[in-house]
Amino acid sequence: MKDTFDEKHERKAWMSLLAKAPEGRISSLLDAAIARPDFTWLRAPEIGSTMVRGRAGGTGTPFNIGEMTVTRCALTLASGEVGHAYIQGRRKSDAEAAALVDALMQSDAADAIWSAVLEPLQAEQSAVKLARAEKAAATKVEFFTMARGED
């Protein structure tokens, strides 16, 4: 995930933030920002699994790492916006909150939701990423060679 959002991929970026958010964090930020609007389920939250793929070194041939548990749902607001969510783990309430945020980001409330929910999530995830990088940097070993004077 990039540290900044580009206009072309905004939805991809906010969906990534929502999918990776810690348990209960989306709900707490959303409830602090606004009263939850009325909606109808297109697909109630359900738990399933998805295959996770990887690449050796990030560039090699793709291979299946294994399965991961996900919770997904879809809803529509009374005003017509549709929200979808795929969340890591077994978290139905987080999937509901993420789908609400997705739908609200497509409405007139987008600016308020951006500043109240998505910006704090982005800042928290960036801080976690920085802390992990600093911890890894502290263990870095510098190797160097010395010329022995012999050819």
Structural write-up:
This protein has helices spanning 10-20, 25-33, 92-104, 110-138; strands at 39-55, 62-77, 82-88. It is an alpha+beta fold. The protein has one domain (7-131). The protein has a three-stranded antiparallel sheet. Strand 1 and strand 2 (62-77) form a beta hairpin. The relative contact order is 0.17. The model has no long low-confidence stretch (mean pLDDT 88).
Question: Layout of SSEs?
Answer:
Elements (H helix, E strand, L loop, with lengths): L9 H11 L4 H9 L5 E17 L6 E16 L4 E7 L3 H13 L5 H29 L13
Helix pairs in contact: 1-3, 2-3, 2-4
Top keywords for this entry?
alpha+beta; single chain; 151 residues; 4 helices; elongated
Short overview:
This protein is of the alpha+beta class and 151 residues long. It contains four helices and three strands, in the order H-H-E-E-E-H-H.
Secondary-structure element series: HHEEEHH
Tell me what portion of residues adopts beta-strand conformation: 25-35%
The major sheet is characterized as: 3 strands, antiparallel
Low-pLDDT runs of 5+ residues are none
